[in-house]
Amino acid sequence: MQQPIRSHQVTIHDPRAAAVFTKSHLRRLLLQFADRPRGVAEVAAELSIDLKQLHHTVTRLCRLGLLEVVGERKRAGRPIKLYRCTGSSYRIPSKLAPVPFSRGLAAELQAAIARDAVATTEGMVFALDRQGRVAGHVLERPGTGLAPLDSWRILRLSSTQARQLKQALGEVLDRFQDHASTAGEVYLVHTGMARRPGHSGPTDNAPPSPGKRPRR
């Protein structure tokens, strides 16, 4: 009988367990077992990963108290162990994480952008746009595939505008994440924004109208 969905948050106290969540592939593997008990072979087949390697990872996650055996499925021969997360969610205090949760992915993304830029672009063009702002665009090399996206903006925003931008960026990512697809290539996508308290000089906003001061 399928066990009911739980709502139980586990707070992590072991730095070794916290380190699991700083590695994107490990936290994704772990949370495949969050909503119901599952066998290792089932998850390995669903994610198209090596069964032996996943067995090793599951054993490690059990030792760290993040997974547990909650039952067995009978079959001819040895029964299949069913694993489940020890909580429906995990809370990891920042002081326990040895590195920021996104550092590994950020390093991978920067390396991938540099690699693809060499293969698909011929350089950059910089000029002033119609509003007097510095604008740059990539010179794509024909017939080499999609050039990487590496776009930055230095924006002056009110608190309300910053929240609106954050929400809009999240909605765009959610919209494409909700597309079920088995075709195409895998892309590493990132959006981010943070205050820049030491900034001085121009921003990338449209120039203020004459006689008006920029909003803060």
Task: Please give a handful of descriptors for the protein shown.
216 residues, alpha+beta, Arc Repressor Mutant, subunit A, 2 domains, two-stranded parallel ribbon
Plain-language structure description:
The chain has helices spanning 15-20, 24-31, 40-47, 51-63, 103-120, 159-177, and strands spanning 9-11, 67-73, 80-85, 89-91, 121-128, 134-140. The chain is an alpha+beta fold and 216 residues long. The chain has 2 domains: 9-96, Arc Repressor Mutant, subunit A (Orthogonal Bundle); 103-177, no CATH class. Strands 1-4 form a two-stranded parallel ribbon. Strand 5 and strand 6 (134-140) form a beta hairpin. The longest helix has 19 residues, at 159-177. The chain starts with 8 loop residues before the first strand and ends in a 39-residue tail after the last helix. The mean pLDDT is 87.
CATH superfamily of the largest domain, by name, is Winged helix-like DNA-binding domain superfamily/Winged helix DNA-binding domain
The spatial strand order of the largest sheet comes to 1-4
Helix content: 25-40%
Major sheet summary line: 2 strands, parallel
E-strand count = 6
Low-confidence stretches: none
Overall average residue pLDDT: 87
CATH topology (fold) name of the largest domain:
Arc Repressor Mutant, subunit A
**Total of DSSP H or I helical runs spanning 4+ residues:** 6
CATH architecture of the largest domain: Orthogonal Bundle
